[in-house]
Here is the input.
Amino acid sequence: MPMSARGNKKQDFSGFALIELLVVLAIVAIASSLVVVSMRDSAQSHLDEEAERLAALLEGARTEARASGITVRWEPAGAESSDGANFRFIGLPKSSNLPSHWLRPGVSAEIVGARAVQLGPEPILPAQRIVLSRDERRTMLASDGLAPFARTPFQTETQ
Here is the structure.
């Protein structure tokens, strides 16, 4: 039977070290977070993207209306639109080149309580809300008349 020098006992470790367990937990956490991100509802994220874009367009038109002193309105184009536009800015000069189409098909807009959104030239405007829809999903843009348009939780009229 082989003998080792005094104090050099062979020890057989079975199991995992704490650092190994932490590495495995970190890998599992990263993998699960990637799965959660990839499972996000793409239709809702597309609608949120359209809402953020429209809010930026409305604020750009509002700034131009106030700077120029002209009356500007935004309205969604209905089925009667002959040029294929989804929405239009009325009152802005042609040189402003603001878009008139949604980024993705299937998006529609409805102004709550009005036919058009008033953007200027007055510094204080009435409170206004726009509901954007895509399939069964909805989101709302709102302004109290002073603040810029921003996405808000969608609420029905009965809430």
